[in-house]
Write a structure and sequence with these properties.
Layout lengths: L4 H11 L2 H8 L6 H10 L34 E2 L13 H11 L2 E4 L7 H10 L3 E6 L5 H15 L6 E3 L14 H9 L14
Parallel strand pairs: 1-2, 2-3, 3-4
Helix pairs in contact: 4-5, 5-6
């Protein structure tokens, strides 16, 4: 498995339909935050330490709401919606992979698999998870999603992460140029759409 992000992006472009690839690879609006984030990450480096005793290395970390030192690595899988667009198993596969790697799974409100399914997949693999909460226009639906996440957490306390107030507006590259220009100038104010009531 490669750790070259550019190579992973090339593979994804070859495997996925164009609209799916651009959903995952792109950002909202004019993608200013996406570009700034990519630039910010370039400022961080992993500094190798030589001539150190590495016979006993412990990278585990404690996570609020979970048993002490439940994660083997200080890494979390960021909440990403609509994962079944890329693979039928969607969030279930991601949850199992995160647990196998000792990483934290953060489940998006826009999940394509049921909260309970993902919680069971994480628990079955011995992992840990959080639930990202979008405060939707339908507040009763928001409350039901939170209740289900808390119930699915079982004996472990649920850890909720508050998301933004709405979906980012996407300007898709396969749209005609005139439509892209109009969309780029438009600021949307959608209120809590898109959440599947069956999740």
């Amino acid at each position: 498995m490669t750790v070259d992000i550019a190579d992973l992006e090339r593979r994804a472009r070859d495997l996925l339909a164009p609209e799916v690839y651009h959903y995952y690879a792109g950002g909202s609006g004019q993608e200013r935050t996406l570009r700034a984030s990519a630039g910010a990450w370039q400022q961080y480096w992993l500094a190798p330490r030589v001539l150190r005793d590495v016979s006993s290395v412990d990278t585990s970390v404690g996570v609020p709401g979970q048993p002490p030192a439940v994660l083997r690595t200080p890494i979390a899988v960021a909440p990403t919606g609509f994962q079944s667009l890329a693979h039928p198993d969607g969030e279930l596969a991601t949850a199992r992979g995160a647990a196998a790697a000792g990483a934290l799974m953060v489940l998006s409100t826009r999940t394509t698999r049921r909260i309970e399914e993902v919680a069971a997949a994480v628990a079955g693999a011995g992992g840990a998870w959080w639930f990202q909460v979008y405060v939707l226009g339908d507040r009763e639906l928001t409350a039901r999603l939170v209740d289900r996440a808390v119930a699915a957490a079982g004996r472990r306390r649920a850890r909720l992460r508050r998301g933004g107030r709405g979906r980012g507006h996407r300007v898709q590259p396969w749209w005609p140029p005139a439509r892209r220009r109009r969309a780029g100038r438009t600021r949307t104010a959608r209120r809590g759409g898109g959440a599947d009531r069956k999740r």
